[in-house]
Design goal:
Blueprint (H helix, E strand, L loop, with lengths): L5 H8 L6 H8 L4 E4 L6 E6 L2 E9 L2 E7 L2 H10 L3 E3 L8 E5 L6 H18 L2 H10 L2 H5 L8
Length: about 150
């Protein structure tokens, strides 16, 4: 369950059709909001006013910047040709993904979940508890809460 506000809706109205599926997945994260603090053409997705994704078009390509564990960021850049160091971001902690590249849809969703979880874990304990009372751990951390054998 996600609560969208009218400001997020107005920003998303001008989203190009090719970015809409990814934006929909991003907005389905708990308490996700969208705004455009960098101006037209750069959609910022946040939880508790902390950015977890940046969606934009650059040189005719659909791109997504996501926060990432530094070691995993390097590994993803080695595995996928369409993953590079974060454009206009801290290159240690952010990756840029060209959406029409070689990253499968399931892996892209895992990357989004990972970015969201990193930002969630960086929130104050009080804010984490507040969100944890409203959403299951699987939605907040992108992990299965099933039993491990």
């Amino acid at each position: 369950m996600t609560t969208q506000d009218s400001a997020s809706d107005s920003y998303l109205e001008c989203l190009p059709a090719t970015l809409q599926p990814v934006a929909s997945y991003l907005m389905n994260k708990p308490e996700a909001r969208c705004d455009m603090p960098f101006g037209d053409g750069a959609w910022v997705f946040k939880v508790a006013d902390k950015m977890f994704a940046l969606l934009y078009q650059r040189e005719g390509r659909d791109c997504l910047n996501l926060k990432c564990d530094p070691q995993q960021a390097l590994e993803l850049r080695d595995i996928f040709d369409s993953v590079s160091a974060g454009y206009h971001m801290n290159k240690r902690h952010w990756n840029t993904i060209q959406l029409a590249g070689d990253v499968p849809a399931g892996e892209l969703e895992r990357m989004i979940d990972h970015s969201y979880a990193l930002v969630y874990r960086g929130l104050t304990k009080a804010k984490q508890r507040e969100l944890a009372t409203r959403y299951p751990e699987e939605q907040l951390l992108g992990v299965s809460t099933g039993s491990k054998e």
